[in-house]
Amino acid sequence: MAADDMWTAFDAALRELEAEFEERGWNQPPALYGIFDRPAGDADTRVLVWRQMLDREDIWGSEHPAAILTRVARSWTGRDAAGRFRTAMNRNGRVPVAFVFVSEVWGDTHQRMTVAVDLRGDRHILVRTRGQDRPRRMPPASMGGQVPEALARLIGAATER
Fold first, then answer.
1. Residue 39: which of 117, 95, 78 has the closest Cα?
2. In this predicted model, which residue has the larger pLDDT, 3 or 25?
3. Which of 1, 17, 36, 43 has its CB surrounded by the most CB atoms within 10 Å?
4. DSSP strands (E only) in the chain
5. pLDDT tens-digit readout, 118-145
6. Measuring CA to CA, which residue among 77, 128, 96, 132 is closest to residue 13?
7. Considering the entire predicted model, what is its pTM?
8. Do the Cβ atoms of 67 and 146 come closer than 8 Å?
9. Residue 111 pLDDT more than 80?
């Protein structure tokens, strides 16, 4: 796929993923996805990454989702696991383009955050406040901390950056 086409497809996949979560409704568990530039087999270009590990109540418990994501990223990309992780993420010729984390946050408002870090290291952030018709794209610098760092660790390990 040409580079421009790949980034257009990535942007569309990110928006489609957020829209799918909107269709499911609110109060959904956090989820981690990988987006790839080529499908593995007949799957579409967005491949769910071990959601069963991230979707269980006993995993999330009372710990903040960002802390769990950080722990999972470290375990998947540590010295003993990094090679297996890279092999799994590049299986069947697919090439990782980004990792995406979707979670809900509560403060003054209830929001869904769709955060991605791509293989260039760029951050992509979509935020939907409950009751809004569509998400808004936030500037990359608007979010620092554990989520983008963990996603960067995953994409780096998957692409040997």
1. 95
2. 25
3. 36
4. 31-36, 46-48, 96-106, 110-118, 123-129, 136-138
5. 999 999 999 999 999 999 999 887 777 8
6. 96
7. 0.83
8. yes
9. yes
